[in-house]
UniProtKB/TrEMBL annotation:
It holds the Pfam family SBP_bac_8. This is ABC transporter substrate-binding protein. Spermidine binds at E42, Y89. It is found in: Periplasm.
Length: 360
């Protein structure tokens, strides 16, 4: 996000400081203690850490990861953090491998503030281990001056094979999201382990990269689409929210074929050194104050119901931006499930897709 990047230096400075004491600082419950947080980069509100430090007397030490897999390697190798913010499928893996500790709900007083639609998802149906941090979907961001809604409705993800848009599309450099798109375009579950279906999806993607001349990108899509550089691209809903807030000519479409309903959530590793402080942080993030700071600054959808309603409602920062409100009523939408054997197959196939793209 531009506004987030602009304040990166200030935020980094804030993270190195302990909370400044006040006359009552000695009464703060976690005075002098440290919380070790492992989160995605550029994924926190401007004042989240400083406010938590001020209220608790604790110091928050933050490390950042670029992928769930990078985070997993450090945690699986025994590196200690108090709170992690992984994605749904990775949480499922961490649970399966007994790397998380169950949450003590008696220490979490703000769970009733959260949207029911993002609670009790398949990877953790009782929220025994995780509390949502952000959530959203994946869809198509498009320039309304170049792409008709009729084409989107008629073609869905197959619009990425429509030669009318040759050389004018972005693909997202993510094996999971690319295969989700291809599998949904073919009418399959994005969680399929059927090798024939996976190979069909591979061929779909090869056809796309060989005939459509897509640019394969990651976060560059955000500013590039905000500037109208391509007709359309695959994008996360939170990034589409920013694009649409910057450029009124941009739209967001979720095909009826279905999409990925994703959630990033807070968890406590089994080897956390300060689980009590970890619970306090998780509970604070659920509050109106912290959720508003997070969501208004980052642009991703808050699990706090009041914050989501306020930001998307009349006068809200994201009023009229459909990307901010995740779809929750389409039976074809799915949550990613973790399957290591399938993950390896998809990783291999996607590397071959990228080779095909480089040779096209």
């Amino acid at each position: 996000m531009k506004k987030l990047l602009a304040s990166c230096a200030a935020m980094a400075m804030a993270l190195t400081l302990t909370a400044c004491g006040s006359s009552g600082s000695g009464d703060r419950e976690f005075e002098g203690q440290e919380l070790h947080l492992y989160n995605w980069g550029e994924y926190m509100g401007e004042n989240l850490i400083a406010n938590f430090e001020e209220q608790t007397g604790a110091k928050v030490v933050v490390d950042y990861f670029d992928s769930n897999e990078q985070m997993y390697i450090k945690v699986a190798n025994g590196e200690s953090y108090d709170v992690l913010v992984p994605s749904d499928y990775m949480i499922e893996r961490l649970i399966q491998e007994d790397l998380l500790q169950p949450l003590d709900k008696s220490k979490l007083s703000n769970l009733d503030l959260l949207n029911d639609d993002v609670m009790g998802l398949e990877y953790d149906p009782e929220n025994e281990y995780s509390i949502p941090y952000f959530w959203g979907t994946v869809g198509i961001v498009y320039d309304k001056n170049k792409v008709s809604e009729e084409d989107l409705q008629a073609e869905g993800y197959n619009i990425f094979l429509d030669t009318k848009y040759k050389g004018d599309i972005y693909l997202y450099d993510s094996e999971r999201d690319s295969f989700m798109m291809a599998l949904k375009a073919l009418g399959y579950s994005m969680n399929t382990s059927d090798e024939n279906e996976l190979n069909e999806a591979y061929n779909w993607l090869v056809q796309c990269v060989e005939t459509m001349e897509p640019e394969i990108v990651t976060d560059e899509i955000i500013d590039n689409m905000a500037q109208g550089r391509k007709a359309l691209g695959l994008i996360y809903s939170g990034d589409a929210t920013y694009v649409m807030s910057e450029n009124e000519d941009m739209g967001f479409y979720m095909p009826e074929d279905g999409t990925n309903l994703w959630s990033d959530a807070m968890v406590i590793p089994k080897n956390a050194e300060n689980p009590d402080l970890a619970h306090a942080f998780i509970d604070y993030v659920c509050t109106y104050e912290a959720s508003m700071d997070n969501s208004s600054f980052v642009g991703y959808t808050s699990p706090n119901q009041e914050v989501m309603d306020e930001l998307s409602g009349p006068g809200g920062d994201f009023e009229g931006i459909n990307a901010y409100i995740p779809r929750s009523d389409n039976e074809n939408d799915e949550v990613f499930k973790y399957d290591e054997a399938t993950r390896k197959i998809i990783a291999d196939l996607f590397s071959r897709v990228k080779v095909a793209a480089s040779n096209a």
